[in-house]
Amino acid sequence: MNKQEITSLLEKEKLVAIIRQKNQQEVQPIVRALVEGGVKALEITSNTPGFLEEIQNARTLYPNVLVGAGTVTNKTLAQQAIEAGAQFLVTPNVEVSMIPLAHSHGVPVIMGALTPSEVCMAHEHGADIIKLFPAGIFGLDYFKAIKGPLNTLKFFVVGGISTDNIKEWMMAGADGFGIGSELTKMVDPGNPNEITQKAKSFIEQIEACQ
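Above: the chain sequence. Below: its structure as tokens.
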């Protein structure tokens, strides 16, 4: 897929599952559980041990799922992630130097931004989707204030999103979501079926609002 096709699929699916773990061996069971729950796009963060290897593993095991790299804060990480097979990059920060690098490889960038100036800077330098982060701390009213004058931009909101409030965020104009611990944290670490069921619940909520 080319950059536009990947971006369009991300916008269509509206859900990117964020995998950030302390132990590498936890990654693949979580990936499997998310995929079984219907997740079609996921990111493995750079502060997960062995994240490059796990991106490669996920690409091999699940060729019909988009696999990206998260917490990509600089060009070095961007290059490493792209070489490992990441199909999209997600940042927590505005680091515009990585955008031309990613685009030269056909890889879209979901760039983290918070203030109007950061959002506009990311957009003007070619970010494909804006990641409003941390959305939950600043809340719906803040997002609405940002979205009002910048309503032509695509916003994925990240931080503090749950099945209890995702409908409100969609009604406020969110184009998609990045969801981490709300999806991947297990009450019973030996029961990844929890993740599968939570993924299904999030997807049902999103589909109900479309």
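The first helix runs from residue 3 to 13.
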